[in-house]
Amino acid sequence: IHQYNDPQAVFDLIDKQFSVDDNVLLDLTKTFLEEFKVGLANYNQAMAMIPSFVTGVPDGTETGTFLALDLGGTNLRVCEVVLNGDKTFSLVQQKYRVSETLKAGEATALFDYLADSVDAFLTTHATTDYTSPQDNKEAAASNSEVHLGLTFSFPVEQTALGSGKILTWTKGFSAKNAIGNDVVKLLQDAFDRKHMHVKCVALVNDTVGALLSRAYTAGGCIAGAIFGTGTNGAYIEQVANIPKLAGSAAAARGGEMVINTEWGAFNNSRSHLPTTPYDQALDRLSINPSFQAFEKFISGMYLGEIVRHVMVSLVDAVPKALLFSGKSTPELNKHYGLDTSFMSAVEEAWIGDSNEPDSFEHPPFGQEFSKEQLSPKVVAKLDRIRKTIVEHLAFKEEQVSYKDAAIVRWICSLVARRAALLSGVAVATVLIQTKHASLKGEHSEIKGINDRLGLGVDGSLVEHYPNFTKILRESLRLLVGEAVEKRVEIGLAKDGSGVGAALCALMALKHS
Ligand code: ADP
Q1: What DSSP letter does each residue of 65-126 carry, written as one string?
Q2: Helix (H, G, I), strand (E, B) or coil at 409
Q3: What single-letter DSSP state applies at residue 454?
Q4: Which string of DSSP letters, residue by residue, matches 179-241?
Q5: What is the rounded CA–CA span in Å between residue 508 and residue 64?
Q6: How far apart are CA 142 and CA 25, in angstroms?
Q7: Distance between CA 393 and CA 489 in Å, rounded?
Q8: What is the pLDDT of residues 414-448, one digit of tens each?
Q9: Where is the signal peptide (predicted)?
Q10: Which residues, including other chains, have CB under 8 Å from residue 350's CB and lie 6 or more apart?
Q11: What sign for the dihedral angle of Cα 150, 155, 161, 164?
Q12: Distance CA 209, CA 290 (A)
């Protein structure tokens, strides 16, 4: 809440609070690298650096038909994936809603619901006779069960391709009697209780899935990243660089292993992240205060809520409100009442169908400004934003001034820009850790200077948020230089969790 003499000072302060300067980005990358190293050496760290037991990546020639189940975001997805062996696949999927009651209830109820959803899918959607040898030789040879890969996008300490203990819930889940248990067993028990002929053979994180599926469709990839409800990344590491595996069979085998970083937990101590009072409020009111600190600056679940906090602070400002003439709506007042898709819609309304630079011509927000002072082009843009605000926040059109629209768009772009710049820090860390890049100002030997650096990404933010990738690249250029940034090939791992789970199920069957 702001109390001010000069309204411009309030806007200047918010601008400053959300700006991240170059030195902060550089320092964060150094800290990120340190946390990577600590996580690779020790168990039970915030940055968990979880070995996935995936020891190679696909090249596009893999074949087979599998079921995939994806839990970890806004929806539960069940799909049937056919890998054609020529970098292509086909996929049928159905989404099921996970109610808040299930998210917070008993784990057995949640896993029974997962099994019911797979059962419903098999009856209504699945197209393949899984027992037919032409369709899936591996599956048919071992038994007549349907093989399923589980994409489970929560921190899990994996002990093999097909088992892992749940470490903690994130992203609004809190089901009881799950933490500490093997998630594959919880699911298999639910299938068995219902006498279903489905066998869960592989457990994969969505980031690992994004990496694998991008490697399958693009013929190579070094990392996967999610910018959706939450954020996380996975990359290919040398087993020799994972001290915590010392003494294990995996260490004896050597070679490479995909690591699920769980980077959403970067800097849980919050000593480095450029935290604003709005971030503090969001964290304090979240179901996991002081956990997933990085994720709370970046992902879809939180960005809309940060914007809402900033908007409300301006509505409440004294002596005179600085937004919506001091009016609010139940939607604007509601905790998590503003979805991140609102921000996308506002920015799209601003950009319109033109591709012009997004510089923002308007009088300073500290002054009153009227329609007459604005160019017709800006008026048209602001009219579209006013409509978006009216639609999403249930204001009446006359309650939203041109200045209000301009301020809302400005807040959205500040919050999103910070998110995209920080996302670049995570990606740069992976490039440096894998010796594909060195941090600006430091000169280490880098490998394969002409190689394409494939990054498979998934999630609504990268897919839909205007300029998210562009700003992420701006951050990469600053951190690792333009030459490396240009070689980074960011590609959508569309249906990555389903295809990744299928590829993982195939690997598990080959190893068994
Ligand atoms: P998930 O990560 O759950 O698999 P998504 O990648 O679709 O699924 O992410 C959903 C999150 O993205 C939600 O938090 C939602 O607020 C946000 N979101 C949905 N649509 C958009 C959009 N058009 N632009 C930005 N964020 C969006």
Answers
A1: EEEEEEESSSEEEEEEEEEESSS-EEEEEEEEE--HHHHHSBHHHHHHHHHHHHHHHHHHT-
A2: helix
A3: E
A4: TTSBHHHHHHHHHHHTT--EEEEEEE-HHHHHHHHHHHHHS--SEEEEESSSEEEEEEEEGGG
A5: 13
A6: 51
A7: 37
A8: 999 999 999 999 999 999 999 999 999 898 888 88
A9: none
A10: 358, 381, 384, 385, 409
A11: negative
A12: 27
Residue 459, ligand 1, Cβ within 6 A: yes
Taking the alpha carbons at both ends of the chain, their separation in whole angstroms is: 60
Question: Does residue 339 have its Cβ closer than 6 Å to ligand 1?
Answer: yes
Its ipTM equals 0.97
**One-letter amino acid for residue 260 of the chain:** N
Give me ligand 1 centre to Cα 497, in Å. 15
Q: How many CB atoms lie within 10 A of CB 126?
A: 18
Positive or negative, the Cα torsion across 105, 109, 115, 120? negative
Which tokens is 173 given? 């889940």
Amino acid present at 349: A
Q: Which of 282, 308, 341 to mutate to test the pocket of ligand 1 (most atoms within 8 A of CB)?
A: 341
CA 229 to centroid of ligand 1, rounded, Å = 5
Q: How far apart are CA 12 and CA 16, in angstroms?
A: 6
Query: Is 415 close to ligand 1, i.e. is its CB under 6 Å away?
Result: no
Q: Where are the alpha helices (DSSP H) in 247-395?
A: 249-253, 277-284, 295-298, 300-315, 330-333, 340-351, 376-393
Residue 503 · residue 212 · CB < 8 Å = yes
229 C-beta closer than 6 A to ligand 1: yes
Helix, strand, coil distribution of the chain in percent, nearest 5 = 45, 15, 35
Backbone angles phi, psi at 241, to 5 degrees: -90, 10
CA-based nearest residue to 146, from 163, 181, 121 = 121
CA distances from 57 to 41, 64, 215, 301, 470 (A): 23, 16, 6, 30, 27
Cβ contacts of 447 within 8 Å, gap of 6 or more? 435, 436
Q: Is 228 in the pocket of ligand 1 (CB under 6 A)?
A: yes
Query: Could you tell me which residue, 353 or 495, shows the higher pLDDT?
Result: 495
Backbone angles phi, psi at 304, to 5 degrees: -60, -35
Q: What percent of the chain has pLDDT over 70?
A: 95
Q: Is the beta carbon of 301 within 6 A of some atom in ligand 1? A: yes
Contacts 24+ apart (CB under 8 A), 179-183: 181/107, 183/150, 183/152, 183/156
pLDDT, mean over the chain: 92
